[in-house]
Amino acid sequence: MSLLRVESVSKRFGGITANQDVSFEVGAGKIVGLIGPNGAGKTTMFNCIAGYAPPTTGEIWMNDIKVSGMSPEQCARAGIGRTFQVARTFTSMTALENVMVGAFLINKNVGDARQSAARLLSFVNLGQFRDKPAGSMTISEQRRLAVARALAVKPRLLLMDEVMAGLNPTEVRETVDVVLKIREEGISCLIVEHVLEGIMPIADAIVVLDYGKKIAEGSPEQVSRDPKVIAAYLGDE
Ligand SMILES: Nc1ncnc2c1ncn2[C@@H]1O[C@H](COP(=O)(O)OP(=O)(O)OP(=O)(O)O)[C@@H](O)[C@H]1O
Ligand SMILES: [Mg+2]
To answer: Given phi > 0 = left and psi -120 to 50 = alpha, else beta, which region is 26?
Structure first.
């Protein structure tokens, strides 16, 4: 049974078609990779799904709730969490306080928010940064902090936009371990990523966008053998 259903979504900005008639699904407890060259429309798709920019046409459903047209807050309440391609870390606040910002969205009780944030920091292996300013953390640690903050809203689907970009192989592995732990919790993950060695080994399915259109979909093996996908990536070099 699918948790998220994207149905014929198109998104236009004036004359630019950032997404064109894109359909795909994310099953409950699955990891789906959304890949494609720069400007393919991946972040735009996240903005459509999470309520930051409604689709021009098409519909998006979370189970039996139509989320297309809803505000980001309503989408969050429907179970959609996200991280941002451009970090929104509060660098002078502590790691704990950053995660509490997420926790407060669903629980105004300070003690509860603190407890839930502390648990999530440990979950993403950042327990030791609890009382340190987020600005003192590495990029890799700040990305996992953003994941913890998104998890604090208790999503059933987590959208992660390039959380592995620019990381070294050790950091990619640490991030992959966290993604696998998230799936073990039963939370579905939709992951936009250029770091294919991070996403390909763990994805249950891959969706490929190019110039706003879906050009391929299937297992990581199927997609990486697809001539259209190879051409899209080579054309990008
Ligand atoms: N708010 C906007 N207004 C106008 N054009 C936009 C807007 N947002 C995105 N676009 C355009 O839509 C297209 C898709 O952009 P998008 O950011 O979704 O790509 P992407 O796949 O996330 O790329 P990248 O891998 O570089 O992050 C681009 O041509 C971009 O310039
Ligand atoms: Mg993007």
So the answer is: beta
Pocket test for ligand 1, best of 9, 11, 12, 13 (most atoms within 8 A of CB): 13
- Cβ neighbour number for residue 115 with a 10 Å cutoff: 14
Tokens of 64: 């039996």
Domain boundaries, the chain: 2-79+157-236, 94-154
Give the tens place of pLDDT for each residue, 181-222: 999 999 999 999 999 999 999 999 999 999 999 999 999 999
CA nearest ligand 1 atom 4, residue: 13
pLDDT at 237: 52
- Give the number of other Cβ atoms within 10 Å of residue 158's Cβ: 24
53-92 pLDDT, tens per residue? 999 999 999 999 999 999 999 999 999 999 998 888 899 9
Question: Which tokens go with 158?
Answer: 């987590």
Q: Are 117 and 131 in contact (CB under 8 A)?
A: no
Which amino acid type is present at position 155?
P
Query: What are the tokens at 82?
Result: 């996200």
> Ligand 1 site: residues with CB under 6 angstroms?
13, 16, 18, 36, 38-44, 85
> What are the φ/ψ torsions at residue 5 (nearest 5 degrees)?
-125, 120
- Between residues 85 and 21, the one the model is more confident about: 21
**CATH class of the domain defined by 2-79+157-236:** alpha beta
Ligand 1, atom 5: closest residue by C-alpha: 13
